[in-house]
Amino acid sequence: MEIAAETQKKAGFFAYGWDCLKSSKTKLVQVAKNAQKQGQDDPRKIIHSLKVGLALTLISMFYYFRPLYDSFGVSGMWAVLTVVVVFEFTVGATLSKSLNRGFATMVAGALGVGAQELASLFGEEGEPVVLGILVFLLATASTFSRFFPRIKARYDYGVLIFILTFSLVAVSGYRVNEIIDLAHQRLSTILVGGATCIIISIFVCPVWAGEDLHNMTVRNMEKLAHFLEGFGGEYFKEPFDGESVVDSKDDKSFLQGYKSALNSKGTEESLANFASWEPCHGRFRFRHPWKQYLKIGALTRQCAYHIEAMSSYINSKIQVSAEFRMKIQEPCTKISSESGKAVKALASAIKTMTDPSSADPHVENAKAAVKDLEIALNAASLDETDLLEIIPDATVASILIEIVKCMEKVSESVHELSGLAHFKGVEPNVTPEKPQLLHRGTIKPIPDGDATDVIITIDEVSSVPPENDKGPSKGKQDESRVNMG
Amino acid sequence: MEIAAETQKKAGFFAYGWDCLKSSKTKLVQVAKNAQKQGQDDPRKIIHSLKVGLALTLISMFYYFRPLYDSFGVSGMWAVLTVVVVFEFTVGATLSKSLNRGFATMVAGALGVGAQELASLFGEEGEPVVLGILVFLLATASTFSRFFPRIKARYDYGVLIFILTFSLVAVSGYRVNEIIDLAHQRLSTILVGGATCIIISIFVCPVWAGEDLHNMTVRNMEKLAHFLEGFGGEYFKEPFDGESVVDSKDDKSFLQGYKSALNSKGTEESLANFASWEPCHGRFRFRHPWKQYLKIGALTRQCAYHIEAMSSYINSKIQVSAEFRMKIQEPCTKISSESGKAVKALASAIKTMTDPSSADPHVENAKAAVKDLEIALNAASLDETDLLEIIPDATVASILIEIVKCMEKVSESVHELSGLAHFKGVEPNVTPEKPQLLHRGTIKPIPDGDATDVIITIDEVSSVPPENDKGPSKGKQDESRVNMG
């Protein structure tokens, strides 16, 4: 009995061990699959990892070899630290962190030396008290400043490093000439680390925050366009249950895509912030109007909210009046598809950075279809129709009209962008909101060289919906870049 | 002439200086006002700044005084560094960073020693090569792991510190016994710094991420409730232009409040993540169902999208049919106000952590009002009405019906929360979705002590809309906390 129990126990133990091994194997396989998916989704992630590895290895070796090690001293490790902390996915983020770190270290170091000098005037007993008070005041004030939206958006990391360096220098207990030596070492190592990061980040397969923002804006608009182009067909399709279920399963994705635009605010804002740190790259100039992308993004989101409300009527089980549907089906489908085409044209204009005027006919068509819809509604006689049965269709029609209004605003703001960013084929001095009707044919296009002096009037953001502006959203890009040089 | 020009120049210079002084004075005043506003908005920001100042001063003094300084050596500065980097606004964030930092330093230190030992086997020439390869591999793999949503959400900072410490130890060039000394010093100083932060963060006016999430959820629901309660009156009000403009200006804010719920996803997710690191506090147990708040938040947001679409019909200039409006005004106002009351009751149930059943009558009333509306619509004869004139009202009615559906889902998920979090007056083993109709009066409430074993069935998140799940949103709280101890 006992032996049997023992054997069973042993067998149980081995079985348990085997189970563990098997489950950890499946887990490993899962992790590997996950990793593969991550890499396939965005190969830049793999490249970024390799870049960090490269930068860190370079700096580590730099630090490891004695001749360099001796000249830099222990502070060589600051170079390693800088690389690890400063190297971010996008060039803009890396630049922002490096510059913040370098600048803050300099200012805080100088202030720290000053604080020490000041404290030393108070004698051996007074010194720690004065230093303590100074550290307390500075840390408190700086920490509080990090709550200011503007500072949080652009200089958060700088303030952190400022507090850090000031405290370290002020209480280090070194004498001034020692400190200056130390500061020189630290600054030069930070420079080496930061420069390595910046160089690798810019010159080895760079990931530009600005380009990301540009692509993200385009992608969100394209998704909206897909939805709108397909919506009419999907909503008004005949309910042949058997067939439609089968063939609709694979192409339903276009009905969900727009959802990614609903929550894009945070990402867009941080990308725009990082983009404003970036030098000119590819098709983007140094002061590319990144702020305008945020405006377009907000309007796209506004559209997406309406679409979200409208999408709850797709596949609704409510009985609808066939007579009424027949009357509005055509204009509604037209509105939806023309709006979709307009948004698509606008997205492609941004993508290729060309004149977005090719969207204008579609905008006009959509507006004409709205008129048609209104006429159809006006003419509809409802003598024998149950009102309840027209409600879903009427709602969809009404929301479509709102979407056209939204889409017009998107179009306006894309036209603004095309003017601000000097898209190809755009006359730079025509205010895009009041289009060419008056000027067409009479205005002379100003050559590109003069275009920089042209002031483009833009109605302020009144058309952008007031969104949740708590946090670091407002006026992120107002700051001048000069300070950080 | 020259003198006059000179004088003018001087005057100009002084005027310029004076202007500068004045403008910098106005700027300073502005900054001060801004700071005052920040402090008044949330006095916890001031308290947090003072807490950081306190922690840093304590640690700096600790580091400054020689007896301590001698025993800790240069690594005392790691304590200062830890305080600056780790002290965050909420307890959860501080805990998360401290634990990540401590744990990562330990593991990476051990691995670093191992790497060094391994490399030393390859002789003087092979050593740097092997070390370089190891650093490269580890940095690359770790950086890549930071893209995994789960790791990014909870262990991002830990991985960063892991890379940092490993590189520093591996290439430090110290011998093993020196390293163990160094590691001991570094770990103990990090412990001192981390512990100071944690203690001050928890015991001096703590800011709990969990409580913040709880309050934010309540606040967003209350804002929705305000909108819904006021919407009927606002939308159907008689257009007495002169009067209404005056008295409506001051109470229009309730029409905008809901917008803060539109973009709350990111904040909610990071708060829920930090909350899961927090110990029990106040009314919240250790494993409070923070994830359920995200579900409620997503449904609240869904409601807010519908409200956003509906709000474009307030103050629309379109002529409406008075006859039709008369018929639907009452049920619509009822739906809106009862939904508002229901959401308010749900919000207050979460706020006070009591049984949310008090919302049920309002939910039922709202549903009854939907029925009434449908009857009214059914009965409405439209013989002489222009269809175009009923469209806005019909759309509002239709969206209100959708809002009731949404609100029902919110109510369900609040009931779920009340069961999961053992709200006062909730029978813990009744599945909240299939309410008491069958059981009422026959079931015996299980005493609180046993309640932990009760399994509560919850329909999975199918009712939550698929949102933009790119990034660190999915399954944040699945991870067990045990690993980080």
Automatic annotation (TrEMBL), chains A, B:
Pfam families in alphabetical order: ALMT
Keywords: Ion channel, Ion transport, Membrane, Transmembrane, Transmembrane helix, Transport
Biased composition (Basic and acidic residues): 467-485
Membrane topology: Multi-pass membrane protein
Chain intervals for the UniProt region annotation (Disordered): 460-485
KW Ion transport (keyword) present: yes
Subcellular location: Membrane
UniProt superkingdom: Eukaryota
Membrane-crossing segments per the record: 46-65, 71-91, 103-123, 129-148, 155-175, 187-209
InterPro entries on file: ALMT
Keyword 4Fe-4S assigned: no
CC terms in the record's Gene Ontology section: membrane
Gene Ontology biological process terms from the UniProt entry: malate transport; monoatomic ion transmembrane transport
Similarity annotation: Belongs to the aromatic acid exporter (TC 2.A.85) family.
PANTHER family associated with the record: ALUMINUM-ACTIVATED MALATE TRANSPORTER 10 (PTHR31086)
Name this polypeptide is given: Aluminum-activated malate transporter 8
Organism listed in the record: Vitis rotundifolia
